Amino acid sequence: MKKLFALILAAVLLALPVLTLAEDEIVIGVTGAFYEDLWQPAIDKLADEGIKVKLQQFSDFSIPNNALNDGSIQMNAFQHHAYFDNDTQTNGYDLTIIADTFVLTLNLYSSKYETIEALQEDAKGGKKLTIVVPNDATNYGRALILLQDAGLLTLNEEYEGTPNVENIAESLVELEPVNASMTYQYLEDADAAVINGNYAASYGVDPESAIFFENISLENDRFICVIAVRTQDAENETYRHIAEVFCSDVTTQVVEESFKGFFKLVWEEEAQEEAQ
Which residue segments constitute the domains of the chain, with CATH numbers given? Predict the structure, then answer.
């Protein structure tokens, strides 16, 4: 009997770490207050399944991959492919993408000009105009493409992937690079600002108020946002299930109700293509 009891006790003790792990919160790193609303329906659904998820806010883009790499958080969901590739290669992070989610708009806003045509007219007329842009490498390059499409600068063709300052052949405006999280704060002082959708949404900006809109395409995944984990956790079924729940109708509904105009959802585009 004592031997049987010892075997049962040993089995229980071996099981305890697994049970404790299952009860721990899974922390997902994000940047921007709007993610709280965006993720809440998925978090509620996962809670009903016994999976506890908590969001961890970070002040800017430079922190969440480092936090994920060192194990401070278990997942993150704040960046696109271009940023992920650059940041992981530059810093040697051992991270893996487990899901594509959406393209988050990067548009041009102004408190001084109501139309892009009015801004273009002043710029072409020689008026010195300042446009605030994100200063991180990938979003800076993305802003350059946007401003070229807006007719405010010209890029040479001697670049691969995302352009940088050296690729500007001609510009009608002066660029002021700042931390992406600060672009909205400079909107009143500058003539215009290129603002990432996550920060625009967090400040309650109406996406339709932009004076020029980014040409969004899912054919190139550079600016498709992702959910990432440490490479050692890439096959973790719980993490993958969390990503699956997020990329579903529960998130589509909150986007349609509260964030229409800021997102192009990958899973919705794929569903439409399959239906066709």
Answer: 25-104+220-265 (3.40.190.10), 106-209 (3.40.190.10)
